[in-house]
Amino acid sequence: MTAREIFKMVLVLTIVTGVWGCALSLVKIATQDQIEYQRIKNIKAPALKKALTVEYDNDPIKDRTKIVIGKNKRGKPIERTIFYAKNNNEIVAVALEAYGTGYDGDVGVMISITIPEKKIGSIAVTTHTETPGVGTKAINSQAFMGQFKDQPIGKNFSPSGGYIDAVTGATYTSHGIQKAVQKGIKIFKKNKSKILS
User: Fold this and answer.
1) What gap in Å lies between CA 102 and CA 115, rounded to an integer?
2) What are phi and psi of 140, to 5 degrees?
3) Can you give the pTM of this predicted structure?
4) Can you tell me the distance from the alpha carbon of 26 to that of 160, in angstroms, rounded to the nearest whole number?
5) How distant, in Å, are the alpha carbons of 123, 168, 179 from that of 129?
6) Is residue 19 one of the residues assigned to a domain?
7) Tens digit of each residue's pLDDT (9 = 90 or more) over 24-77
8) Is residue 116 a part of any domain in this protein?
């Protein structure tokens, strides 16, 4: 094989891989919104449905927006998705996900806040890595999760706040959920003008 044939083969392979790389990038860009919608629908929608206790006539997954709530250690923006529940085109509740540290990692909690009452509609766990049968006792406890329902967002829901009773045997998970709710309320209060505009 001559140097010219090798060069020709390398050039053809470079062009083919470049064209297919661009094609894959275009497919990713074209399907990015649909992929995000499906990811939210399959992972977060069950918790969103549990958290939104008000009557609404829209699709909160479609009526969503992202807001920047701060920056991470590297200076990159931290975003949260805000889901809107509307009735007759008026916002009746918003929902957002926040995280608290449980026994075995972060516990994601979907929190809904009713508008204009500014009360917690309800909460539901979206993600967790807690021990089945131990940490999940708090997640599956309707008595524990129900303590947040219809509470004003002005209350202190942190573990030291005294308003919420933890689940015996699942204290770390209970505290993780409480911390997530407290963080979610803090995000709402700090970004209320962005969220409700």
Assistant:
1) 29
2) -90, -5
3) 0.81
4) 50
5) 18, 18, 16
6) no
7) 999 888 888 888 888 888 888 899 999 999 999 999 999 999 999 989 999 999
8) yes
